[in-house]
Automatic annotation (TrEMBL):
GO terms for cellular component: plasma membrane. Belongs to the OXA1/ALB3/YidC family. The chain crosses the membrane at residues 7-23, 29-47, 98-119, 139-164, 195-219. This is Membrane insertase YidC/Oxa/ALB C-terminal domain-containing protein. Residues 30-231 form the Membrane insertase YidC/Oxa/ALB C-terminal domain. GO terms for molecular function: membrane insertase activity. CDD domains: 5TM_YidC_Alb3 (cd20070). The keyword Plastid does not apply. GO terms for biological process: protein insertion into membrane; protein transport. Pfam families: 60KD_IMP. The keyword ATP-binding does not apply. It comes from Candidatus Buchananbacteria bacterium RIFCSPHIGHO2_02_FULL_56_16. Signal peptide: none annotated. It is found in: Cell membrane; Membrane.
């Protein structure tokens, strides 16, 4: 499994980073990381687009979801069946927004190991024959920032980009609690977590990781936020159908 991870993710990313490093004027590692991030983002673009549409579609379904929760507030099983019928009728997958994140986790781990080996330890022993070996990678970008060391500014930028991305996906006004509801609406809780908790976690985690990884996370989050903005302004996510979902039937 380790060898598969190295062959499929780690080695290609290491070679791509070194390639950009050798062809960029001045051999600036920061510019090489930005270019590497843009390539990764381009490869993940279809999944990211699907995730953004899925999250926005779930928000658009929120009024109907609230109606079903009120209708079946005393019958959890019927409520769950009605929700599934609603998702099916509207062709919305509630898990679609999680897929790109799950796919990014092994990529993030591979990028971390690339920076650990290439920037921190200087190990470039897995280069392809057609990739020029620079001998070592200078971790200092623009003559100022050592990307092999943690960097507070880059961690804060990554957190700010995370906040901006989440803010665009959050509802303008959280739905009111329904009479008799014991728990706060799940979508509202998720929105609050994405809006506040994730940016703070990004900053704290980014402060402990190499600056190169914080730069990667900042750029890829910024590109995702810009993608969201373009999608929302131009074509927008698909609007839900007007046909109501068939109510779940109770066993007699």
């Amino acid at each position: 499994m380790s060898q598969l991870f190295t062959t499929i993710l780690y080695q290609p990313l290491l070679n791509l980073l070194v390639f950009f490093y050798t062809v960029v004027p001045g051999h600036d590692i920061g510019v090489a990381i930005v270019l590497l991030t843009m390539v990764i983002k381009l490869l993940l673009y279809p999944l990211s687009r699907q995730s953004i549409r899925g999250q926005k579609s779930l928000q658009q379904l929120q009024p109907k979801m609230n109606e079903l929760k009120e209708r079946y507030k005393n019958d959890r099983e019927a409520q769950a069946k009605a929700m599934m019928a609603l998702y099916k009728a509207e062709k919305v997958n509630p898990l679609s927004s999680c897929l790109p994140l799950l796919i990014q986790l092994p990529i993030l781990l591979a990028v971390f190991q690339v920076f650990q080996s290439g920037l921190h330890n200087g190990s470039l022993d897995l280069l392809y024959p057609f990739v020029a070996d620079p001998g070592s990678l200078n971790p200092v970008s623009f003559g100022l920032v050592n990307l092999a060391q943690p960097n507070l500014v880059l961690a804060l930028l990554a957190g700010a980009a995370q906040y901006w991305q989440a803010q665009m996906l959050s509802t303008a006004r959280p739905p009111k609690k329904m009479p008799g509801a014991k728990d706060e609406d799940m979508m509202t809780m998720m929105n609050r977590q994405m809006l506040y908790v994730m940016p703070v976690m990004t900053v704290f985690i980014g402060m402990t990781l190499p600056g190169g990884l914080a730069l990667y996370w900042f750029i890829i989050t910024l590109l995702t936020a810009l993608q969201q903005q373009v999608m929302f302004r131009k074509d927008g996510p698909p609007a839900p159908k007007t046909t109501p979902a068939a109510p779940a039937t109770n066993a007699s």
